[in-house]
Batch of 4 targets.
Target 1
Amino acid sequence: MSLATAATQAHRQVRGFLVAGESDMMVDLTLAVLHFVLIFALVGILGAEAALVHEGMDGMQANRVAVLDRGYGAAAGLLLVVGFMRHVLRRERRGLLPQNPVFWAKIAAFALIAALSILPTVKFIAWQRRARKEPGFRPVPADVLSVRRLILAQAAVLAAIPLLAGVMARGYGL
């Protein structure tokens, strides 16, 4: 089965599940709202991570940030799925193909954020494990600084995505 066929079938299943026969406009609205909620979740979780990751953080904060980071990954994954579903719905309705370079810049920015999040996630998992085993554990300040820098880099790239989305929505790049 091709990717396009699978996407069309998934779209029909989501449409049937979410609104049981309502119009594509209602599905589009539902997916748009969910898309924005997930974006706000990413921003909030990333902000919470930035607040928790600081010099002198303790094992309890290391545990909290590891739990938050799992939510960050889940929200990012769901955002990707919902964004894909929105794209499939638009393409079905309007015959649009992903020919817009601004669309690909937005996807590249999202991929860059994912890449920037790998090292922090690995560190958070390690910190959480050590905090469980070693009372009084505190992450090494150099590790905390490098993770904090990567969190701030993710935030900077994340801030560019709404700009790209606004540019794309106005037809630039076509």
Target 2
Amino acid sequence: MLSRVAFAICLTTSATGASGADAGAAWLDSTATPSWNAPSAKIPRAPTSTPDPLLASQCAKQVRPPASGADRAVAAAGWKLLGASQRFGDTEVVGGQSAFDGMCRPMAYQFFVFSGGRFAGTISPRPMDSRTDGAARIPLLVSADEIAVAFSRYAPSDPLCCPSRIGTVQFQLQKNPKGPVLVAAAASTAPTGEPKAAAPPAALPAAPHAAPPTEFVPPGQLR
């Protein structure tokens, strides 16, 4: 019964919201890379949510227990730990969410960056929802002081499954007398999928294009 309810919720969302476009991702289109993190800032509190008890029970196995000081700090701010934490040297990225959708995808989620055990900032100015414009995928720790994050970019006509563009933001961890701070250093946006190639000879069948990447789904999340 629960699985049918979850499917109905997801189906209703897909039918009534044909697009994931969201004005909350406007920061990704800014000509000047915005700054929202500051040294010695506190971890933002998780948004308040009142999940359906049955849905919360179904999705509970995807919430992991804290395993580090950074994990405990994020959990203490009210976040449910999302996916696996990542480390590169003394840099750690921890995901947190406050709710689930009908298919246990993360809602109101965020990624928190720590350096030397100290909070350095978040990868987005505000929490994100799966299948909406500006939803982040799993951050990539390029080095101990560089992180790359891809964000789903939806046009108004895009279906929820398939954003037509991907925005990539390069972050840097900067040292400051008051503590480390995460700074968005550069951003770019490109269409998803492969570029169109010249048509093959008539005698040969056209090769299928690879499917475009879908929205961020943490390991273990159901689609």
Target 3
Amino acid sequence: MVNGSRYPWEEHYIAAVLETDDAKLPERVGKAHAAIASRRQELNSDHLGTPDEQRALRDAQKGLSVLSRERIGESSSGSRKESSDSGNQPAG
């Protein structure tokens, strides 16, 4: 387990946030989303758990959305944006 995590699903979230290899990031984010979804499903059958964990789950989902949008180029719906390098080419 990654140091500093309070909930089992946080291990995957922290691993995604700390990933520096852009090639590995989509897999890390996917695993974090899956761990969060699995925990939410467990909580639905357990009276939704504690307010602290619910808040942590929401915050983690928001964090993964930002991470996906900024580092992977995915929209919040999960579809990849097409990137164009033509705008980054020097003129002349």
Target 4
Amino acid sequence: MSETKELAIQAQGIRLRTVDDVARIARMMAESGYFKDARDAAQAGVKIMAGNGWGIQPFDAMTGIHVIQGKPVIGAGLMAAKVKGSGKYDYRVREMTEKVCTVEFFQGSESLGVSSFTIEEAKAAGTQNLSKFPRNMLFARAISNGVKWFCPDVFSSPVYVPEELGAEVDEQGDVIDVQHRVEPTSEPTEEPAAEGEPVITGKQVQALAIAIGSADFGTDEDGKQQGRAFVSWLAGREEAVGSIKDLTMTEANTVLDRLGSGENGAYRTDAQKLAEAINAWHEHLDLQRAPVPEFDPSPKKAQKVKDMEPIREDEEVVA
């Protein structure tokens, strides 16, 4: 097995050494079709990278981590398992009814504090499926709060359970339906962007929004400007477009082909293609900042070259 294809397997699972490792695993996960909230490699890659930063294996990340409103959320079971497996912290459930859940957190034998969550707080927060699984919902919120308060170093960044961001979950705390769609703001105008060219379609706008969103340029004005410049360069335009809706259908297809595959609502961004396109764009920008000077011979050299007689076929060239 070659080094580029080898996966380093350790006792605790797969070690992801490079972005290429993540891309291969993400592509395999997405193409399996088993994960409703990660239909393309870019979405799967985000989940896997989030899990990798928290010491969570790829498959566990795919099943236990979701991205809601741009924030990674973790199922209560996976969050509780991380606390138990930390080797530093532990917890005990002191009370669990349909009215309240109380969880006490420990570091060794020392009690760090108690996290409680009541049915009244859950109702005020608009927790989904509270009438079906009240004990599960209350446990999830008690665990989540306790991790934030007493053992935040179990994770490298703030974490949430899906219920905190309004997601609907089942009895096990798994998200029932997480959609990662970017809804088009409106249908493009019927006027053609360029004479003789069909206008970009609504589905192309949606696919482009997903693809460019995966590049993570940011949502501020500077990030949006970079995104438009990137799209324009991919489309072969010299000047940046004011909006992706200004592209023609042909230009949109060119951009989409360079970033992924599929059409008619089934478009998937390819993490490898996206990375290659961004790298190529950065190289293009570097050349723009420091262009190679044009060759401009001095008048004397130019005249000398002009006055040279052409070499005859029977003439020997002496080196």
